[in-house]
Batch of 2 targets.
Target 1
Amino acid sequence: QVQLVESGGGLVQPGGSLRLSCAASGRTFMTMGWFRQAPEKEREFVAAVRWNGGLRYYDHADSVKGRFTVSGDNAKKSVYLQMNSLKPEDTAVYYCAAKGRYCSGSYCYSSSSEYDYWGQGTQVTVSS
């Protein structure tokens, strides 16, 4: 049985940092990503890590580039999201997602419909 479990969310002041973790069980994945959903908004892509043979690729949404950094360990079935310089507009529920296949294009890794498994989500609130 596949499970994705996120941790690390919480309340932080603007300009602060948080690190999210996601641990998978049941199998390994070639693409793992982070999405977020704010109240009354659609779920949006945040970042992804992809493994293809011995190569590893990192992808970030434009809105978080330079502030967030995704990383992952395929052997440990884990993906992480280091979030720095947080802004109030980063407030959302953050979801970990995983896909068995390697995503070769941006549509694949940035589209929520392409992922096979999802975590339960962790709340991130940026507020003073």
Note: The longest strand covers residues 44-52.
Target 2
Amino acid sequence: QVQPVESGGGLAQAGGSLTLSCTASERTFNRYGVGWFRQAPGKTREFVAALSWTGSSTYYADSTRGRFALSRDNNKNTVYLRMNNLKPEDTAVYYCAADSPGASGWIYYNALTYDYWGQGTQVTVSS
């Protein structure tokens, strides 16, 4: 069991950048698959990006591919989401979620796949 905690949200201008962090105190967090989701007011939660539990694969939504990038620092028990070229439509609460390592066929884009969730961090992009 892990408890992800997000940080790094804030206000950015369109075209700017922010880096979100997802960390957990449990050392086992390094072995979990990690997904990022976001939810804007009045909208459903949507998939943003995911990093496989092996760390060898990354996945992105069509809306974030080429602008967002995932990385992991196992020494710090942290997964980073670097967000570049931000757009007003990126404004949302961003959530980090962890999934226990498992077999192949990981449905990384489905929020129901994930067992543990952070509280979220607000990202606001002004035009």
Note: The two ends are 40 Å apart (CA to CA).
